[in-house]
Amino acid sequence: MFGGIILTFSLVLEMAPDSGWFMYTPLSSSEYSPGLGSDFWLLGITFVEISALSAGVELVVSILRTRTQGMALHKMPLFAWYILAMAMMIVVGFPPLILGSVLLELERAVGMPFSTSPAVVTPFFGSTCFGCLAILRCTLFSYRGRVLFPH
Description:
The chain is mainly α. Helix content is 62%, strand content 0%. Helix 1 (2-12) runs antiparallel to helix 3 and helix 3 runs antiparallel to helix 4 (78-109). The model has no long low-confidence stretch (mean pLDDT 81).
């Protein structure tokens, strides 16, 4: 909730982020997007990620500890398995996101060069992955069906 308050407070103060929703590192550095808008966004997103991680840990612990006596994992209901799998994905996937947003904020606030060194991967790596798939002519799941029947 604290992260949402920070994000909303930045809109009230008219300091919305101006480096796009994707926050690619060279474009979101303080050189290309000056001002406090991106800092508000990074702090808010970091707190939202931390709260999601704590909720994921709480769900995993709750599901594993509050089963009835003698109930094995394979006898749990399907909904409990769904929530457990989702919470495990949050627990595994969110620490790198938290680290990335903290490092980007440290780069913006203190000037630590995490993404400005020449050894850093191109910021459009996520965009070029799909371009590589198109060049290699790899088919994705239901790609042909979506091309033939787009709606």
